[in-house]
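@channel sequence for tomorrow's demo:
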Amino acid sequence: MKLLLVDDHPLYREGLTMALTTMADVEVVGQAGDGESAVSLASQLRPDVVVMDLHLPGMSGVEATRRIVAELPATGVLVLTMLEGDDSLSAAMRAGARGYLLKGADRGEIERAVRTVGSGEVVFSAAVAPSVMAWFRTGGETPFPELTEREREVLDLVARGLTNAEIAGRLVLSDKTVRNHVSNVFAKLHVTTRASAVARARDAGLGER
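structure tokens (generated this afternoon):
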């Protein structure tokens, strides 16, 4: 089984490499420290499993997962991250990840998860299992899972036509905080104008009065 390890911390990657190469029939064929490199290496090396961190410089682990799965549907992506929030979990699942573990997992759990994902099955850490079940019960329909709950709330008000000042008054936030939220929303949705953000939001059902 060929593995590609993606994490922005070199020492963690090296430690994980040493642990996983002790597994029978497992070869770590590549390492990447950012999302762009992960996508490029996956295309070149065609690994069976990509062990993916979500918090990466530049392209996020979620976007890298989405691109890898789109190009290489036979490759399984196992997320291994510190992020345990529902937004991160939902975003990873929607991107096509087959597994989600927290970095607190022990070596045995990581090895079993790699084997499971490599065989085409799905696996989730016990710590996030309740969130996974809730996600399936709701059909995984949370719009824009890459946004935080507050960012979705701000986007909803933007889609209703409120100005930043009006949103600040409605949510009892400072103007600067609202501007930061709006900027984060634009970056995560890959839009550059308020009109584009409103169009995306309304297409997803936000902004209804």
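heads up for whoever presents: The chain has a mean pLDDT of 88.
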